[in-house]
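ENTRY TYPE: paired fold submission
RECORD: A
CONTENT: sequence, then structure tokens
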Amino acid sequence: MNKKRGITVTSLVIYVVLFFMFSFLVTTVTANINKTMFVKRGKIYNVKNTSKLNSYLVTSAKKSDDVYKIDDRLIFNNNDEYVFDSNKKCILKNDKIIVKGVTKFNSTVESTHNNIKQVGVEVEFEKYLVKRQEKYIFAVRGGV
């Protein structure tokens, strides 16, 4: 009786196939976990920037008596100027970056009765392929 010992071709093929299946499974699970983490990070980042921009705009509106929209700039009469830089994907206040990851920024200024101006801002943030779009409407009351 001649018994063969050691690794046969069949067992070697089985080991290689199992190794690649296990590697594929680990890679798939890891990629899914990373994607989920990036989505959560993107949502947190976008909410943080939304709150930050809102805070800046409301503070400027409270300290100001009037607001103008000239070209793509939103200018308050307390010398606060907001500009969207599409190349850097950020919003600048007085030439300093206040929020990043902005893909769209639109603003409107409408005069209403009683010397009040209504300001509308539409902004879209994007980070880690997660988008968040916000719209603000607030009023700036003229010299009372």
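RECORD: B
CONTENT: sequence, then structure tokens
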Amino acid sequence: MPRTPNAPADPIIVSDQTTTPPIFAAARYALTAVGAWLIGKGYITDQTLEMLTALVTVVAPTVYGVWLSFRNKQKLIATADAAPNSVAKVV
């Protein structure tokens, strides 16, 4: 439902996402440490650890990036919908 021009708008919050890379790095280091322990105990092989590390370093950030892009697009659509048609239109 579009807002009227006089309705109070929610503030636009801008985030630079500075914590995301350290979170993925910490997950990679934790996985390496736990994986080394699991290899030492004989629960997994080194190939399994390599696969899990690849999953954490490649797939997880990719999925997060796609989700973040989708979420930001939804916010942009909501902002454009709230603006007057002379400023922005959702088509």
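NOTES ON RECORD B: Residues 21-82 form one domain. The chain has a mean pLDDT of 80.
STATUS: closed
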